[in-house]
Amino acid sequence: MARPIINVPAKARRGQVIEIKTLVSHVMETGYRHTETGERVPRDIITEFVCVYNDEEIFRATLSPAVAANPFITFHTLATESGKLTFRWTGDNGFSETGTATIEVE
Amino acid sequence: MRSIDIVLRCVSTSGFVLMLVLLDSLSATTDTRRSTYDDMSRDIRAMQDDDMANPASLWVNDGAALWSQPAGAAQMSCADCHGDAATSMKGVAARYPVFDAARGKPVGLEARINHCRKTRQQAPAFAPESRDLLALTAFVGRQSRGLPITTGDDPRLAPFVEAGRMIFERRQGQLNLSCAICHDHNAGKRLASALIPQAHPTGYPIYRLEWQSLGSLARRLRNCMAGMRAAPYATGSDEIVALELFLMARARGMATETPAVRP
Question: What is the rounded CA–CA span in Å between residue A87 and residue A85?
Answer without folding.
Answer: 7
